[in-house]
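Researcher: Predict the fold of RNA pseudouridine synthase.
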Amino acid sequence: MTPDEITGRILWRSDEILVLDKPAGLAVHRAPGTWASLEDHFDALRLGLPDLPGLAHRLDKDTSGCLVLGRTPAMLRRLNQLFADGLVEKTYWAVVEGAPPAPDGRVDRALRRVRRAGDWTSVVDKNGQPAATRYRTLGSGDGRTWLELAPETGRTHQIRVHCAFLGCPVVGDMAYGRPAGPGERLHLHARAVAFDLDGARVEVVAPPPRHMLPALRACGFAV
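Model: Structure tokens for RNA pseudouridine synthase follow.
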């Protein structure tokens, strides 16, 4: 992506914070085997400030949506702490294969990180780290379900593993579901973030990505 394309995806901005609509397929940081990342665009996202912005949290490479960045070192530390303390409300949308056993509920299953083929994945393990995700059904169609999910913790691939545990893996999830179809991408989107800071409420919503729209519309979504 070009610098102008990245800055054009800013959803919300203050003197010390940016909320970006991260595109699916773009890693947030440099890693072995990753030829491009959001970090490559930090200079463009500086927007006149002396310091480069920093990631307050992370999204998987193939997950789109709301990503919060701190524009100053002091604010970045505050935001990191808000996320670590569970004081940021995160809302995700997913389209899953099939349907969960109940239209809404809570998955409370510990997760353990494991290394497979050079990549980190997670598995359900009672001896792992506590992990919980709330979910509710927003619609269904064509053998799939549109879910709203609210992770209470922030474990690696938490939503994807918990959906697979429910028997309804996220569409396009090659790691925890079935192989993706031709041109099919992960149908997981960080829909919204909300948090309180200095007596003010910050609430930001990201529009669903283009690749999810056909499945969402089949499940009842209307723009």
